[in-house]
Structure formats: structure tokens, C-alpha cells
Design goal:
two-stranded antiparallel ribbon, about 30% strand, alpha/beta, seven-stranded mixed beta sheet, single chain, Rossmann fold, about 200 residues
Length: about 200
């Protein structure tokens, strides 16, 4: 199985302009918690940057951010906003070693097929420097499935996520549940995961 879902990528490609121009605000509260764990000016990789609002916020805070997205059309839209290159990167193509102090993956790893998520976490863990910080958010659920836009979601439980993260050497892993919404405006239970790589 691939580390991405073709139907999900097709949705984001066809809806890139609308998806990135809907006025989405940066995830300020989560970003502030994330960057409080980092040194000033730290290097950050953003996976699935979407419209670029989170990267924009972190760049304004003085961090060296490398924004990426798995959909070329969305990467181009984010470039317009940020004024810097935005690489097209599928999660399964991440091959860097000990490069980043932080990796930010807001509402994007939730599209990875469940059997492939452990392997992607291995790649993310490898790309982090010792002591690096990793944030990701997931839509909670009991079983994988698709939404009204035919986007795939892995819909994990908190216990499943903890077990999956436990396969790697983290100093700490915190999981926080929170109610919210998403692009479909439906009530959503979110799981926010913050992990620190063993120094």
C-alpha cells in the first residue's frame, strides 16, 4: 500500500485554489506550545503546509521554516502567500537524517493509510535531530474511512496512536483530545500529539 491515497491527493489538487484561499487562521495556540520547546531560529520542516498559514506564522516568529505539501497545486498556492519555495513532498519520500529541530504536521498525517503510518513516523523520527520536537494532529475515530469529499482518514484512537508512537525512541509523547471542526464544517474530535526525540 502507498503512503498516500490517490483519491485524497486528487481532491486537494482539484480544490487547491478554494482550499488555500478560505481564510484559514494559523493554529496559534498549538504553534506557541510547539515553538516554546525550540531554540530561537530553530530549523522546522512543515509537512502538509496547505495554504501556508502555519509556516507564515512561524517564519514571522524568526524560525527557519521549510514548508512542503504533497500536492503540487497546493504547494504553488502556498508559494504565492509565503514568497519562498514550497517543495512538493510526499510523506514516503522524506529521506533526510538529523536535519531539523522541529517537524510540524498539522492535520495531514491523518490521510496516511493506517498500515503505513508507523513507517512514516520512522522517517520523521530520523529527520529530527536528537531532542527535536514533532507535532501532529489527527481526527479521532475507531476505524479508517472516507468523508463526504472521498478523502481517506486513518481515524485513530488515542491508545492506537500511543502504541504506534511507542515503537520509536521519544523522551516524551503527549496526546490531547479536543473538539473542533474541519473543511467539511462537521463536529470533529481531534487528537493533538507532541513528541520529543530522545536526546
Amino acid at each position: 500500500m502507498m503512503s498516500h491515497d490517490p483519491e485524497t491527493l486528487r481532491f486537494y489538487g482539484s480544490e487547491a485554489a478554494a482550499y488555500t484561499s478560505r481564510g484559514q487562521e494559523p493554529s496559534r495556540q498549538r504553534i506557541e506550545i510547539f515553538i516554546s520547546r525550540l531554540q530561537p531560529g530553530a530549523t522546522i520542516l512543515e509537512l502538509g503546509c496547505g495554504g501556508g498559514q502555519d509556516s507564515e506564522f512561524m517564519i514571522a516568529k524568526g524560525f527557519a521554516v521549510s514548508p512542503t505539501d504533497g500536492t503540487p497545486e497546493i504547494a504553488r498556492e502556498a508559494e504565492k502567500r509565503l514568497g519562498i519555495p514550497v517543495a512538493t513532498l510526499l510523506f514516503g519520500d522524506l529521506n533526510e537524517q538529523d536535519v531539523y529541530e522541529g517537524i510540524w504536521a498539522n492535520a495531514c498525517l491523518l490521510h496516511i493509510p493506517r498500515p503505513e503510518l508507523p513507517g512514516i513516523l520512522v522517517r520523521i523520527h530520523a529527520a529530527l535531530k536528537a531532542g527535536g520536537v514533532f507535532y501532529a494532529s489527527f481526527k479521532a475515530g475507531q476505524a479508517e474511512g472516507r468523508d463526504a469529499f472521498d478523502r481517506y482518514y486513518n481515524y485513530p484512537t488515542e491508545s492506537w496512536l500511543r502504541e504506534t508512537y511507542a515503537q520509536l525512541a521519544w523522551t516524551s509523547v503527549s496526546v490531547e483530545a479536543q473538539s473542533g471542526s474541519g473543511y467539511d464544517h462537521k463536529p470533529t474530535d481531534w487528537l493533538h500529539v507532541l513528541a520529543t526525540k530522545h536526546a
